Amino acid sequence: MNIAAIFSGGSGVRMGAGVPKQFLQVNGKPILVHTLELFQYHDQIDKIYISVLEDYIDYVWDLVEEYHLTKVCGIMAGGETAQDSIYNALKQIEAENEPDSIVLLHDGVRPFVSYETIQNNIEGVKAYGNAITCTPCFETILLSEGGETVDSVPFRKDTYAAQAPQSFYLKDILAAHDEIRKRPSRYENMVDNCTIIKTLGHMAYMVPGNRGNIKVTTPEDVYIMRALLQYQENEEAFGLATNLGSKINNAKRRAAGRGRSHGNA
């Protein structure tokens, strides 16, 4: 069983919008829905669970129905931190699925993860036990403890940017969270699940991601998202889309057609 756990509990403070960023409409559709559709129409994903702000649970169920997101099995309230939100999702997944299920943890505001990256994550967990999506850094990375002077400059060839999904066997990532939650500091400085397992001394294995897999956090990111959507539309219009991309788009059209035939569109 391959399960996507989408955490989308942020308040969108950095975006400065009137609603949380995951619900901003881009090209007539909430950012969260753009993200969910990538997993809905991936033929290796069996189920989807979503962690959101408690006040938005009913609204997200409405979106699930409106956009025919049939793989969504549960929507639960987020927690105090992003890691608390992920933990809440993992606990519900644990209650309804086998412990050796593969769980792909993904940001609700990363709406451009590729079909291949999702596939790489599933294959990575099967091969190594976990999979951390990464891309090589094209800029020089500086290390600075105080943010005023440069402490060190690692070789660029050795630097990578961690993205999402970050994927694990359900039993393994839950055990890691349970161990961290016993500590007095809990999730302090735990920016992602790769940090959690490395803090516990476990090996983390990298899988290649796609460079367009942006996280929509600021108003500038919304402009980038619109540009990327336009790029995808141009590729399809001029026959340049990949076979995998075409499969997803064709599946969307079939699902939309089924909705109209039942009077749901």
Report on this model:
- The protein has 265 residues and is of the alpha/beta class.
- It is built from eight helices and nine strands.
- It is globular.
- Mean pLDDT is 89; it is low at 260-265.
Features:
seven-stranded mixed β-sheet, globular, two-stranded antiparallel ribbon, alpha/beta, 8 helices, 40% helix, 265 residues
The dominant shape is globular
Q: How many strands in all?
A: 9
Largest sheet report: 7 strands, mixed
The end-to-end span amounts to 30 Å
Q: Could you list the spans in which at least 5 consecutive residues all have pLDDT below 50?
A: 260-265
Give me the number of helical elements.
Answer: 8
Q: Given the helix and strand composition, which structural class is it?
A: alpha/beta
Helix/strand order, N-terminal first: EEEHEHEHEHEEHHEHH
Record the strand order, biggest sheet: 5-4-1-6-8-7-9
Instruction: Please state the average pLDDT score.
Output: 89
Percent strand equals: 15-25%
Helix content: 40-55%
Radius of gyration: 19 Å
Summarize the SSE layout with pairings.
Layout: E1 2-8, E2 25-26, E3 29-30, H1 31-40, E4 47-52, H2 57-66, E5 72-77, H3 82-96, E6 102-107, H4 115-128, E7 130-136, E8 160-169, H5 170-181, H6 193-199, E9 206-208, H7 219-237, H8 243-261
Parallel strand pairs: 1-4, 1-6, 4-5, 7-9
Antiparallel strand pairs: 2-3, 6-8, 7-8
Summarize the structure.
By secondary structure, this protein is of the alpha/beta class. 40% of the residues lie in helices and 18% in strands.
